[in-house]
Amino acid sequence: MNRLETEIAGVVFKNPVMPASGTFEINDYTQSFLDPKKLGALINKTVFLKHRAGNKPPRIAETACGVLNSVGIPSEGIDYFLEHTLPLLKSFGTPLVVSVGGNSLEEFRTIGKIVSDTGEADLIELDLSCPNMEDGSIWAAEDEKLHKVVETVKDVSAVPIITKLSPQVSDIGKTAKIAEDAGADAISLINTFPGIKIDVKKGSPILGNIIGGLSGPAILPLAVYAVWQVYESVDLPIIGMGGISSVESALEMVMAGASAVSVGMYNFVDPAIMGKLIDELETYITANKIESFAELVGMAHSPQLSI
Fold first, then answer.
1. Is there a contact between 109 and 152 (Cβ–Cβ < 8 Å)?
2. CA dist., res. 246 & res. 301, Å (int)
3. What digits encode the pLDDT tens for the residues 50-87?
4. Fewer CB within a 10 Å sphere, N or C end of the chain?
5. In the chain, count of helices (H) and strands (E)?
6. Are 145 and 169 in contact (CB under 8 A)?
7. How far is residue 127's CA from residue 102's CA, in Å, rounded to a whole number?
8. What is the pLDDT of residues 232-248, one digit of tens each?
9. Cα–chain-centroid distance for residue 297?
């Protein structure tokens, strides 16, 4: 019996640990630390229809408890993805989440259908949490546009849809509910928080794009709170992310309501972290005589279920 097994929108993961989009490139170096087959699921760096160069450098600035990044989601485009990236990701026999982005509703419709029609994706994640709209705004931050883009992709996809949310909203629970009403099959959250780091010697921002997204341990309590709110607002599985760097932080996310967790920035600190989390979660449920991982999901909402 696999006690770590979990399920996202009907897709069974052998364990709840996966990378966040764009934080785990599969190559000889990363595979020397972790066999991708060990993960609950794999995900690509968000792919767009056409090539994107990303933001101008510098793109990374370290902070006391995390990292500010302003990468800008560079992409080789969907044709390159289908020819090169997709076959590699599928070769590991692990459930595959394909993360897609778009600058317009029509781009999302087109790329969603292309990915669905391949028959290779187990789930499609809509990256609605970055400033990708034609006017530079965030899809997930505008209720009407959020509903429309989820509804549009859902209409052309035979694959379950994960909606990735931004923290830059006034009520994340309400935002998740809008996604659910539009047809989302799962929710992933939370993306990075906006910030600026200034070089005090030069008197100017460090990042080429000025504003970056903060990730790392500093945002964990904020991310756990967001997951908590969404768990109480919708009846959908949640993939929690933001600040996970240890089994304790992963468990916080799960007990707040996440059915799976994504590791982002910390993959760059410790390329073996996801494998360690899987092993330590197994140790935890064995030591606490827990029959299945599902018992932990949302546990903190029901104190009578506490260990």
1. yes
2. 22
3. 999 888 999 999 999 999 999 988 899 999 999 999 99
4. N
5. 10, 16
6. no
7. 8
8. 999 999 999 999 999 99
9. 18
Q: What is the DSSP letter of 303?
A: G
d(CA 12, CA 18): 13
Note the helical H segments in the chain.
Answer: 28-31, 78-80, 86-90, 105-118, 143-156, 172-182, 220-231, 247-256, 266-269, 273-287
Rounded Cα–Cα distance for residues 135 and 106 (Å): 15
Cα–Cα distance for residue pair 138/154, rounded to 1 Å: 19
Distances (CA, A) of 183 to 108, 171, 186, 204: 15, 19, 9, 44
Q: Which contacts (CB < 8 Å, 24+ apart) does range 82-86 have? A: 82/114, 82/118, 85/44, 85/47, 86/44, 86/118, 86/120
CATH superfamily of 6-298: Aldolase class I (3.20.20.70)
Sign of CA dihedral 38, 39, 45, 49: positive
Say what the pTM is.
Answer: 0.96
In the chain, what are the domain boundaries? 6-298
Residue positions annotated with a catalytic role = 130
